[in-house]
Specification:
By secondary structure, this protein is an alpha+beta fold. It contains 14 helices and 12 strands. It has a 9-stranded mixed sheet with strand order 1-5-6-12-11-10-7-9-8, sandwiched between helices. A hairpin with a 3-residue loop joins β3 (about 60) and β4. α3 crosses α13 (about 340-345) and α11 runs antiparallel to α12. The longest helix is centred in the N-terminal third of the chain and has 20 residues, at about 10-30. The chain is globular, with a radius of gyration of 23 Å. The protein starts with 8 loop residues before the first helix and ends in a 5-residue tail after the last helix.
Length: about 375
């Protein structure tokens, strides 16, 4: 039941009934149901995700409203709704279609239903994280799933603690969710790979425009000059120490059940004190999960989890997967997105943001796996 196209009215009815049941469960837990627009302003999503959003979103044009994007998920419109109208604390739930372009696997859904739960509450972030995880786990009860957790805050804290320029830190932070680009930058900033010869020639040339030919393209000469000046300034920054890079590699390699992962993280924090606060956060969450009845002794934790498809999450992340079914997306995913609320809050006059965590479940997959009754 991966996509709507080609399925019978009966199959669609089963998915909608499952979605209604899931949403009713979140409402029973105190979440207020909200409805979100299907068409969202493209500019908002571009500001958040950059041009990458075009690769997986459907874009349309409106003569009055400009470029619009068909809703790729609910988090952004729910945050905007809360910032405009809500007060902390608050809980919301929703149900409806989302739309994702698929360019690599035509069997993957490009239109499907999501049901979600979002909690805006800064009084006890660890408890809120544990509640969202526990409620989505309960929503998928009866299915054989593997849970994986992580925390994007660990890597972000490690980057913040590097002994390098703010410009380089910003570049690494921007690409935390793009592992290959992050690695290439880290290798270049540390000298593990040489600077390309073409860039060396550009930076050492007395007149970079001498053989450039006629000006063309969208960038002005002044913009190109500013970029060259920035690259020259960056070239003067000392290399990131190999010891610091090795610690980041060690951090990214943590992949164990939660109690052992915590022990490993505490050991790394001795040599990388910048992550100590984030490690404490993982420990508080572990206690909160245990208090919710979660068996943390068997709960997987991966520092690198969530780096491919969770670009607005900046703390706790999790996914519930079908074991052995790499062809299927996660049945449920979620995480913390405090930074997103600060970015969107600036437009609503609330630049401090509101700590928030949420998760979504896919009723279509639940029905497909036999759990929709």
């Amino acid at each position: 039941m991966a996509v709507w196209q080609g399925h019978s009215p009966e199959e669609r009815a089963q998915v909608r009934a499952c979605a209604a049941r899931l949403r009713a469960g979140f409402e029973a837990a105190g979440a207020v149901p909200v409805e979100c627009p299907i068409l969202l302003p493209e500019a908002t999503l571009l500001d958040l995700y950059g041009e990458d959003i075009r690769a997986r979103a459907y874009v349309t044009s409106d003569a009055l409203r400009g470029e619009q994007v068909m809703r790729p998920d609910f988090t952004v419109p729910v945050v905007e709704f809360h910032m405009a109208q809500g007060a902390e604390p608050a809980r919301y739930t929703y149900s409806g279609e989302v739309f994702r372009r698929q360019e690599e696997d035509e069997a993957r859904a490009n239109e499907y239903i999501q049901v979600g739960l979002e909690i805006f509450d800064g009084s006890d972030p660890a408890a809120a994280d544990a509640e969202v995880f526990a409620r989505l786990l309960a929503a998928t009860e009866g299915l054989t799933l593997t849970a994986t957790t992580g925390d994007m805050g660990l890597l972000l804290a490690a980057v913040e603690g590097l002994n390098t320029s703010e410009t380089r830190k910003a570049a690494l932070r921007r690409h935390v969710w793009r592992p290959q680009r992050f690695r290439s930058l880290l290798d270049r900033f540390s000298g593990r790979v040489p600077v390309p010869a073409s860039r060396v020639a550009l930076l050492t040339s007395a007149d970079p425009f001498a053989e450039a030919g006629p000006e063309q393209g969208l960038r002005s000469r002044a913009e190109v000059e500013a970029r060259i000046a920035a690259l020259r300034a960056d070239a003067e920054v000392p290399l990131i120490a190999e010891r610091e890079v090795a610690l980041i590699d060690q951090l990214l390699g943590v992949r164990e059940v939660l109690p052992y992962a915590l022990e490993h993280l505490r050991d790394i924090a001795v040599d990388m004190p910048a992550i100590a606060g984030a490690v404490d956060g993982v420990a508080r969450r572990a206690d909160a999960l245990a208090a919710r009845g979660i068996d943390i002794a068997t709960l997987d934790f991966e520092v690198a989890y969530g780096r491919l498809h969770m670009e607005y999450y900046d703390g706790f992340v999790f996914g519930l997967h079908v074991p052995g079914r790499l062809d299927l997306p996660p049945v449920a995913t979620g995480g913390r997105y405090d930074t997103l609320t600060r970015i969107l809050g600036q437009r609503a006059g609330k630049p401090q943001g509101i700590p928030a965590v949420g998760g979504v479940v896919r009723p279509g997959l639940i029905v497909e796996l036999g759990g929709g009754a």
